[in-house]
Amino acid sequence: MTFARVSVVGAGAWGTALANVAARAGHDVRLWGRNDAAMAALALSRETARLPGVKIEPRVAPTSDLAVAAQCDLLLCVVPAQNTREMLRQLAPVLSPTVPVVLCSKGIERGTHKFMNEVLRDELPRNPAAVLSGPSFAADVSRGLPTAVTLAAEREDLARQIAAAISAPSFRLYHSDDLTGVEIGGAAKNVLAIACGIAAGRGLGASAGAALVARGFAELSRFGRAFGARPETLMGLSGLGDLVLTCGSTQSRNFSFGVALGQGKTPQEASQTGLAEGAYTAPVLVEIAMEKGVDMPISRAVAGIVAGQLKVDEAVEALLARPAKAEG
User: Fold this and answer.
1) Is 292 a catalytic residue?
2) Which of 125, 135, 195, 267 is deepest in the core (most CB within 10 A)?
3) pLDDT of 44-61, one tens digit each?
4) Which domain holds residue 70?
5) Cα separation of 35 and 77, whole Å?
6) Contact indicator for 256, 273 with CB cutoff of 8 Å
C-alpha cells in the first residue's frame, strides 16, 4: 500500500504540525480547514498564528474544500474528539472506503462513551482505522525536534505501513495493533494532567506532583486492564510516556487548564486559555470506570472540580483522607 497523497483534516496547531511531518516524509499533503479566508491566507503567508515562527512545508497545500482534501491515499483526522463524529459524517460522501483514516485526537465521546475508533466504525465502517498517540507537543514536532509516538491499527501490517510512510528523520513512529490500549492512554492522561496542573497551581509542591503522576498511572493501568489493554502499551509512549510529558509542562493545554483551576479560576475562566480535551473526557472516563467497577479517585476528583461540584481544597482533603492500603 502506497500513500503518495496525504490529507490532514483540521488546521489547528497539531494538524499543521502533522502536515509538516508528512511533507518531510516525502508526501504531497493537503491541509484542510473550514475557514475559506484563513486557508487562503495560509496558502500565501505559509505561516499560521497557531504555530508562531513556523513555516509550513512547500509540499503542504492548504484548502477549505473538503472534497479536494478527500482525494487522498491516507487521511489524518485532527479535529477535537467531541467534533470527530461530525467531521467523519461530512467525509462519508466524498472519501473512498479504501482510504485508511488515522485518528489523532485524544478523548472519549460524551453521551455514547465510545472511543474514537468506535466512532469511526459508526460513520465510516469500511475505512481502515488507525490511531496516532504519544508524547508530542505541536511546537516541537513542527520545528523538527526529536519525537517518538505510537501508531496503532487493528491489523499490524497496516500499522507498520502507515508508520513507515509518515515517519520523518526526527519523527519516529512505533507500530502496534493494540488500538484501544493506545486510545486509553491518550484519553486518560489528559484528565490526569489536569490534576497535576491543579496541584501545581495550588502550590502543593513537587512531591505532590510526583505522587499524582504515580497514582494517576495506577488509575490509567486499572482502567486499561478493564478493557484488555496490554501492559506494554500502557507502559509505552502512548500511556506512561504521554502522561509524563503532559503532567509537568505548561505547553500542555490540560496542565495549564489545571494550573488555572488551582489558582482559583472557575472552569469557565480557565478554559479561556484554549481547548483542554481532559475537561470533556473526565466525566465520561469516570462514568465508564463506574460501569466497569474501576476505582479512579483522582479522575473522579477532577470531574467534580470541572463540573463545579467540588472545590480544590475539598478534593485534596478527600484524596488524603482515603483509607491506607497496599500500593497497587
Assistant:
1) no
2) 195
3) 999 998 899 999 999 999
4) 5-177
5) 17
6) yes
Which residues 6+ apart lie within 8 Å of 78 measured at CB? 8, 9, 10, 12, 14, 15, 18, 104, 105
Report the share of the chain in percent with pLDDT over 70: 99
Gap between the Cα atoms of 261 and 255, Å rounded? 10
d(CA 67, CA 298): 43
- Within this chain, do residues 202 and 271 fall inside the same structural domain, yes or no? yes
Is residue 197 a contact partner of residue 256, using CB atoms and an 8 Å limit? yes
Q: If we measure between CA atoms, which residue out of 237, 276, 277 comes closest to residue 260?
A: 276
Catalytic residue among 55, 106, 189, 311: 189
My answer on whether 264 and 148 are in the same domain is no
pLDDT at 275: 78
Cβ-count burial 222-251 (b if 16+ within 10 Å, e if not): bbbbeeebbeebbebbbbbbbbebbbbeee
Check whether residue 102 and residue 209 sit in a common domain. Answer: no
Alpha-helix residue ranges (DSSP H) falling in 98-201: 116-123, 138-142, 156-166, 179-201
CATH number at residue 306: 1.10.1040.10
